[in-house]
Records
---
Amino acid sequence: MPVTVTRTTITTTTSSSTTVGSARALTQPLGLLRLLQLVSTCVAFSLVASVGAWTGPMGNWAMFTWCFCFAVTLIILIVELGGFQARFPLSWRNFPITFACYAALFCLSSSIIYPTTYVQFLPHGRSRDHAIAATTFSCVACLAYATEVAWTRARPGEITGYMATVPGLLKVFETFVACIIFAFISEPSLYQQRPALEWCVAVYAICFILAAVTVLLNLGDCTNMLPIPFPTFLSGLALLSVLLYATAIVLWPLYQFDQRYNSQPRRSMDPSCSRTYVQPNAVCSWDRRLAVSILTGINLLAYVSDLVYSTRLVFVKV
């Protein structure tokens, strides 16, 4: 039994504006927007692939982002055109907007990371021109996916799946930020043999898993499989995550930048940062620590907002 969510004093829903199983779906605003997403991601990875300008981890990430977004957008268009929503293995109330939110974040990250860590180090010529053009189309794709999220998110007076509400979209954002944190702490030397920092890593992992489980439960329409009511699960999850991240926002900066704990409060004191000119794409240890501190604060704010909005949701079963 699907669970839909409403805010108090509001009824919330997602009504599809496309015609089910008709080519006219492509001529409506949402269909045209998805065509723009399809074309922009296709052009982006085609430009880069034609000159091989995607070597290294940053180039690989950008190429994966554009190819993944293109493939899933194509699947969504095929489902809409063929009217296969009822046969789709995931909840169609939740899947398109969840993907659009992830795609917007993916393309945003590629539009920032790819030019700053890869394109600027390419020599002037055909490869660099193609890479710059690909970055431009990546920005267009990001705006197109963000527009879809703005168009299809829950509105007052509608009834929708959980992922279209503010807490649902925040779950997507929280898991994405956690993944970036994991990328920055991929060097175990940043936290190993320091219990307080290992606790912070555990916090990031626990909160990520819980948020990801929430997303997967909604995508699979499995919220009724929980041993407790889904609203209680969401409120408890949000409160637990806030408390855990509150400890991490204190411990991580304290043990990473306070000299009392054998840390470097200034970037110039970190020997790894003085050698970054050898590898322009590298991120030194001090920068990684600072990035994790900032991202921890961002995710804490997201979880606080999640907790506030979750208390204002009313669930109805249909």
---
Amino acid sequence: MSNAGFAKEQGGMSTEVIRRAFGAAEDEFLQQVRQAWPKRPRMAAVGSCCLLGAISGDTLFVANLGDSRAVLGRRVVGGTVAVAERLSTDHNVASEEVRMEVTSQNPDDGQIVVHTRGAWRVKGIIQVSRSIGDVYLKKQEYSMDPLFRQIGPVIALKRPALSAEPQIQVRKLKPTDLFLIFASDGLWEHLSDDDAVQIVFKNPRTGIANRLVRAALKEATKKREVSLHDLKTIEKGVRRHFHDDISVVVVYLDRHRGRRHTRVVDSSSNCTSAPVDIYSSNSGKSAQSLQAYRDSG
């Protein structure tokens, strides 16, 4: 059931509705892993970040796990400039605060977070501390199973190394709130929150998500000293060494004020039926992109 479905069932959007929806997504993915296990044990090593935004009346809900990010662009009161306000927390152990959180939850595991291959990683493997999936880092019966040893080494777990618990922010929309940017970490690796907000604020709406993707790719080419044309010709698997997936949705807020129904943006599949005030783009046909849809119930 979707977030919109849970909201209808509960009579409206709430933090509990969102929490239940995230839990249902995790449970459903675990069921898929169980069903696929004998023939596709690699499914246990598949996971995704999840970022969701919902507007109900004049209330904005933002929920995330992983390191996709939501950023608000708002006008300074009495001014003609926009400033950025981050609405989510990056659950990535590159952050000292996140490392401390993970370590405190695993006081008897000296290897829960280690620095290897140039970065801090949970169990020396993954940088995010929360995800949907990645069952091998949550349930030891999978990582210890002989089938999984075809894919990776045994991973000793005393408890789940990763969490599927979303962090939820609730905020009343204000007249100065202009737009929301929802994007995967591939965008934020190359653009600051303020860079992204200024691009959206200073440019036409049509094509704005594509403009953000292009700006991030331009920065990636500078860092890697390759041309954008050459970057686009690199095979997808190899290209991830140049930049991560870049998925973007921009939601303008002026059309939302006074609406009674719930609008939802989540990190699921591709955007196929977005309303005119929602713009999306993706740097390639990756497993993780962003979707926007309307619940008119």
---
Amino acid sequence: MAAEDQAPRTEPRPDKKRKKLKKDKWGQPLSAAAAEVEPSVEPAQDPPAEGVAPAAGAVAAAAVEGYEPSKVVASGLPYTTTEADIRKLFEFYGPLGSVQLSRFPDSGNFRGLAFVCFESDEDAVKSLELDGFKIGNRYMRVERCRVTASSNKKRKTEFQTDPEKSLGCLSAYVGNLSWNVTEKDLRDFFKSSKISSIRFAIDKRTGGSRGFCHVDFQDDVSLEKAVAMNQSELQGRPIKVAYSVSNRG
């Protein structure tokens, strides 16, 4: 009889406790249906895979989710913010690998967007606490940096063989550019050529440069001079210069 008396007391109580404790992200109690579904989701996220170190697991998880490991994007920053300001803010969470400031292609001025690379993915995740942090009179947004597998694959295979010059071509593809390169920098770089226009490839999500552009020249002599500068150094990087092809935007 003692066992029979205990059964109705021990079985329903966990359900009642679960319903009371389960709340959504706004602190509101979940419905009974939601409370039953949620336990099957939560445990799968908590334990790391067997034999995988926590840090390695975090990096692997970031890659699977489409995030670039150890990297975050800070946006909404005042245009007067310097790299030193950003470093001082994020170094609180751990050692930094690099800080890249996105700039307007025409003026070279800071556009309020920065990419911050940490030495570990764990520190990068911790820095997300800065999301909503007020700097100056603006509220900064901090989020994981997403990557596109297709764009990475394209970068690796791009120009394994230089394209041949098409009839009437007066444009050149210029790649491997630093994100900080401006139109003025490129005009100075190709100062021996007559340039008609420069068209930067812009990331639609961030508004920053994608690291390459197309330069239109006034004549064939100017184009040939530019292509001859292939692998010349600009801001510490060997620049790729090749004939543009018609299907390249």
---
Amino acid sequence: MRHYSVVNLQSMKALTFGITLARHGETQYNKEGLLQGQAIDSPLSDIGLQQAEAAGRYLKDVKFSNVFVSDMLRAKQTAEAIMKHNSSCSGLQMACDPLLKEKSFGIAEGQRVQEVKEMAKAAGQSFPIFTPPNGETQEQVTERVKEFLEKMLQQIGAEHWRDRGEDGISETSPVEGKADDGVRGVPVHALVVSHGAYMCVAVRFLVEELHCSLPPGSDKAHLFSLSPNTGLCRFILNMRKEDDRFKLSGIRCVFAHRGDHVKQ
């Protein structure tokens, strides 16, 4: 586990910002246990719309400076519901990005998830890491995650570098089970709405390749599991400016797969 010292971050004049990563609400395909992937662009079910509204109410007082969304309908509908409840989003535009699309499951799309899990088991792999014929590999999805992260870093850096503190923010608010855990007093905070399998790959990349610091007592099995519909993960990132590029200098996870708003 890598820790980033306050002294180093201050000397680099870091910008601290938050990312709340959200999975879309339930679709009829989710309800029926069918795999969607990329080829099936289904809308939210009635329950999914209720989940998205609940997520919006839960996050209504959390300030966002940017909104990035998969260009698939189920993700856009979820983001719209969250933004509708949030006054800080009233002047923001939703940036739809195909880099945030769900993983492609090739010939398995439209099939029952249980059948695909059995295919994965027969191949000696786990779901959703398993790659059916014509689907995306774990490495291909990871490349999309890396490309999106780099693109987002450069955009947020260009837009908000002036918003950093005198020496960056060295500490963030404590985790108290509240909607704004980790981002109270953090002026830059991006909402990123994507998909279940994509989020699995993204979280694994942040933890295993970027050495993201984890909350005390974290269970990696839970961390790498499939997020529930409208489940929320939050990360705090530090970036520094080197020449004319913005580079990540530290990252920690505040919480993973929080679904309190759905249970209420």
